[in-house]
Amino acid sequence: MELATDMTNTPFPGFSDKEKTAATVVGSAKESSRKTVGEPFIDNPRMTCRSVDVFYGDAQAIKNVSIDVGRNEVLAMIGPSGCGKSTFLRCLNRMNDTVASCRVEGEIRLDDMDIYDPKVDVVPLRARVGMVFQKPNPFPKSIFDNIAYGPKIHGLTSNKAELAEIVETALTRAGLWSEVKDRLHAPGTGLSGGQQQRLCIARAIAVSPEVILMDEPCSALDPIATAKVEELIAELRQQFSIVIVTHAMQQASRVSQRTAYFHLGDLIEVGPTDRVFTNPRHQLTEDYITGRFG
Ligand SMILES: Nc1ncnc2c1ncn2[C@@H]1O[C@H](COP(=O)(O)OP(=O)(O)OP(=O)(O)O)[C@@H](O)[C@H]1O
Ligand SMILES: [Mg+2]
Fold it and tell me: In this structure, which residue's CA is closest to atom 8 in ligand 1?
């Protein structure tokens, strides 16, 4: 499988010794501690997360997680239910801000911007780091307006013809244009589940994001709709970074270049997807992917 970035020679350039030790690469004996093993850091990342802790009230859901998100890569997050995948994903565009009891510590950067800097406006941030949820959630508006809404509020265009072009391009890229071009003014909620999910992906890409977060985007879809979304993910990677949470390990291995395994709030292992699935370095990863746990 193709790797987004060469991580072989300088695994942790530009990071402190503390960060490097946190990501110690171990040999063939399976690691059993809770330090992240593998290659969480890469060259020229799109996003960097350092020592991220997340609490809901007093309960800690994410523990000292450090990882990079590469450019033009699909990063899969896997792990047993309740291990913190959705919580961590939501940190990447401050979606956890909407949960009153939730507190995020540590540092998350998008390019050079500290996204938790109080000066950061979350509305444009969420356009740059878009999100697609498990259950398709079209706005109660027409297909056209579902896509046009974002570009309008973010001031990407003031011109009707240009807006129509943005809508057509986003729907075409999402593989939906031919199915909806004759009913653009029908409600988005009238589409099939798989079409609605592609509509939501089109809505996310219409504002030209840099990163798209997807939380189990195919779990409500049949195999044909799933295959379409997976093809779309492969195509979108040419332009965007994608972080996808999935329970389907086959899906992780089909769509992603890197895989991160979470367990009870710890980031246990990160590495090239091929390697993580064929030769996991941590005992917990091995137990999970071989079906002994989770
Ligand atoms: N809004 C919330 N308030 C309080 N606790 C929460 C909240 N959301 C999640 N948690 C807790 O945080 C932990 C991680 O949950 P999270 O939803 O991130 O797990 P997950 O890995 O996405 O699980 P799943 O695979 O079932 O979706 C769990 O213990 C969960 O109960
Ligand atoms: Mg979840």
Answer: 87
Q: From the CA of 79, how far away is ligand 1's center (Å)?
A: 12
- Tell me whether residue 13 is in a domain: no
Q: Which atom of ligand 1 is nearest to the CA of 101?
A: 3
Whether the CB-CB separation of 214 and 206 falls below 8 Å is answered with no
Six-digit token string for 80: 């047993």
Alpha-carbon distance values, 119 to 56, 101, 122, 204, 268 (Å) = 23, 21, 9, 24, 33
Q: Which domain holds residue 284?
A: 35-289
Give the total number of structural domains in the chain.
1
Please give the structure tokens belonging to residue 3. Answer: 């790797």
Nearest residue (by CA) to ligand 1, atom 12, is 61
Identify the pLDDT of residue 23: 45
Within a domain: 39: yes
- List, for residues 154-209, the tens digit of each pLDDT value: 888 889 999 999 999 999 989 899 999 999 999 999 999 999 999 999 999 999 99
Q: Compute the distance from residue 27 Cα to the ligand 1 centre, in Å.
A: 32
- The CATH number of residue 278's host domain is 3.40.50.300
The reported pLDDT for the residue numbered 57 is: 97
Residue 140 is assigned to a structural domain of this protein:
yes
Q: Is 3 within the bounds of a domain?
A: no
C-alpha 131/C-alpha 209 separation (Å) is 10
pLDDT at 4 over 90: no
Ligand nearest the Cα of residue 101 is: 1
Q: In the chain, what is the straight-line distance between the N-terminal and C-terminal CA atoms, in Å? A: 26
Q: How far apart are CA 292 and CA 294, in angstroms?
A: 7
Between residues 294 and 18, the one the model is more confident about:
294
